[in-house]
Amino acid sequence: MISKDEAGQHVALTDIGKDRLPEGDVNVRVQCSTLNYKDALAITGKAPVVRKFPMVPGIDLAGVVEQSDHPEFRAGDQVVLNGWGVGEVHWGGLAEYARLKGDWLIPLDPAFSPEQAMSIGTAGYTSMLCVMALEKHGVTPESGEVLVTGAAGGVGSVAVAILAKLGYTVVAMTGRPAEADYLKSLGASRIVDRGDYSAPGKPLAKEQWAGAIDVAGGQVLANVCAAMTYRGVVAACGLAGGMGFPATVAPFILRGVTLAGIDSVMCPKPERIEAWRRLASDLDPALLSSMTQRVALDDVVTAAEQLIAGAVRGRIIVPISAN
Description:
By secondary structure, the protein is an alpha/beta fold.
């Protein structure tokens, strides 16, 4: 639980009664949650993610409905939640129980166990939304290379795996050269150094990428846009490299580049369900174990600090067993 007073922000593992859970029409016994970059920002206080205190973080959860006043769900249903401001303005998934609005939930796809669903989590679901955006704008495996920035992270790892399975030639960008073998095991054809894209570049660079999935923002995104091929498409979903966008309009008006913004938090329910359906068919579940590490609820604060420091590969899941 994250609290705040005149002395600043405090985070502690806390025992409370279920009667203190916030308003909602579905009670869920959480089986597994995750630690995302946004959760780590909230827990460490590195960014003002939390907008209401006290707050239980955790933007993802998978669990079993214990009680429901919502017409779509009943006791015993397995459900997944991603986003909707949970962990920011409504108590989230890093707890044994959650009370939520049923409109925020979708059924757990039968292809996945709760732990597998959380190994994918918001990061993987966002990756699938990015892939769907590239497809919507006409990027095919025959179009040319597709770049994934932040490739060793949660979004990037799943994006590389999905694109490779779909037949795309994937180029992985990372600032951690030691992860090259890991990224190639997910399907990356080659690796590029993030450092080559971190400094200010030309308004237009040599055409390289037919598509790109970017989690970085900032100067990296500007340089990626400058290096897109004619009518290339960039799906932007993150700001790990900064909120700014120090670019020019040149790629957009001279090469017809499309910059597609991807929001996973408030994404309409039909698109969520389709993204999870696609994940069930287009992501090799055998790869999930290699991109996932387990952390106990007691160790989440330490893991959050490591995640912010860029010392975490892939996804962190938090198995939870409620009494």
